[in-house]
Amino acid sequence: MIIVMSPNATKEQIESVEKKLTELGFKTHTIVGEYKTVIGAIGDKRHLDTQFFSTLPGVESLVPIMKPYKLAGKELKKEPTIVEVGDIKIGGDEVIVIAGPCAIEEEKSFIETAVKVKEAGAKLLRGGAFKPRTSPYSFQGLAEDGLKIMSEAREVTGLKLVTEVVDPRDVELVASYVDILQIGARNMQNFRLLKEVGMYNKPVLLKRGLSATIEEWLMAAEYIMAEGNHQIILCERGIRTFETATRNTIDMSAIPVIKENSHLPIFVDPSHGTGSWKYVPAMSKAAVAAGADGLIIEVHHDPANALSDGPQSLKPEKFSELMQEIAPVVRAVGKKFNV
Ligand code: PEP
Ligand code: MN
Predict the structure, then answer these.
(1) Which residues surround ligand 1 with Cβ inside 6 Å?
(2) Which of 235, 176, 167 lies closest to 200 in space, CA to CA?
(3) 3-state secondary structure of 335
(4) Residue-range domain boundaries for the chain
(5) Helix, strand or coil for residue 250?
(6) Which atom of ligand 1 is nearest to the CA of 185?
(7) pTM of the model
(8) Which numbered ligand comes closest to the C-alpha of 235?
(9) How far apart (Å, rounded) are the C-alpha atoms in residues 70 and 1?
(10) Considering every ligand atom, which ligand is closest to the CA of 240?
(11) Residue 315: half-sphere exposure toward Cβ, Cα within 13 Å
(12) What is the pLDDT of residue 293?
């Protein structure tokens, strides 16, 4: 339920409504607008006496939230969410690119790649330390040693870090090293993990599940937000379809659908989305043209010998060319690109 306060409601009246809601077991999310303040009351609506609340001093009206995602949707909050990572603003008028290898394999090449993606214009560095591989016999990542290498790369380049966390027990450790926690496609409905990252004051890059609908994806964001963490970046990374020419099918229409229904920023991952480095440039440009707030792209110094996702990884030189190709598309949609 949204409780709309009248334009002249006092601070005390707003606080009194919040207090009553909290006493009834609701979580409140108050948004102070230019003219009005609205209070989102999140909880079991059977416990909310609408008659009572509509007569409280300072209350103008009560509006039900129709969508199942209350905090992630646009009914309560219309303005776009800007996720801030240091001085990087995600979800605003600048297209942001995250780049780096699928997995951290060893220090020297990781740092060299970090330097190159930075030179090409990437603002954040990706790399997996805990890899959710399809086979238990494939490379599983360097775990904490990988996180240490990542922070070394941040020291050298100044790039902010994004890495995946796969286990609720590791969230504290991973959060102590990196700037954005990634929830992978396979864990999009790992509710225990979602709740755990919801308790940290760290932005979350939430990938869409392999077979998740957009509504299920937004409900996963809702799980994180319900715990208090509202700094979420959605990431379309391709879904399972009957098509076999590409590893997954990028649902480009998810971009305008998300923009219509949510205030959260949306990124596209053309690397996992296609499974082939050759298709990454076309899909990157399409994503930006369709309104994506940013891209996450796999870059490897030697894709042929990569321990994971080599076939979809760009060499640093190709990544640099791609950044130049994206620039005019960014400008065509009226956004900025600091490359
Ligand atoms: C990754 O980013 O390397 C990854 C495993 O992604 P996804 O969860 O989208 O498959
Ligand atoms: Mn990968």
Answers:
(1) 102, 128, 132, 184-186, 207, 237, 269, 272
(2) 176
(3) coil
(4) 2-63, 83-332
(5) coil
(6) 8
(7) 0.96
(8) 1
(9) 8
(10) 1
(11) 5
(12) 98
Q: Could you tell me how many residues make up the chain?
A: 339
What dihedral do alpha carbons 100, 81, 197, 213 form, nearest 10°?
-80
| Separation of alpha carbons 339 and 327, rounded Å | 8
Q: Which amino acid residue places its CA nearest to atom 1 of ligand 1?
A: 102
d(CA 197, CA 74): 22
User: Could you give the CA distance from residue 58 to residue 47 in angstroms, rounded to a whole number?
Assistant: 21
Strand-pairing partners, residue 295, are: 97, 268
Q: How many C-beta atoms lie closer than 10 Å to residue 326's C-beta?
A: 23
Torsions phi, psi of 270, nearest 5? -75, -15
CA distance 222 to 206: 11
- Name the maximum alpha-carbon separation found in the chain: 68
pLDDT at site 45: 85
Q: How far apart are CA 80 and CA 84, in angstroms?
A: 12
Q: Does domain 83-332 have CATH number 1.25.40.10?
A: no
Give yes or no for a contact between 103 and 300, defined as CB atoms under 8 angstroms apart: no
* CATH number for the domain whose boundaries are 2-63: 3.30.70.1140
The label of the residue with tokens 């971009």 reads 255
Q: How confident is the model at residue 281 (pLDDT cuts 50, 70, 90)?
A: very high
Distance between CA atoms of residues 273 and 319, nearest Å: 16
Query: pLDDT by residue (tens digit) across 7-56?
Result: 999 999 999 999 999 999 999 999 998 889 999 999 988 889 999 999 99
Distance, in Å, from the CA atom of 287 to the CA atom of 250, rounded to the nearest integer, reads 9
> Do residues 112 and 301 touch, judged by C-beta distance below 8 A?
yes
* DSSP assignments along 258-281, one per residue: HHHHB-S-EEE-HHHHHS-GGGHH
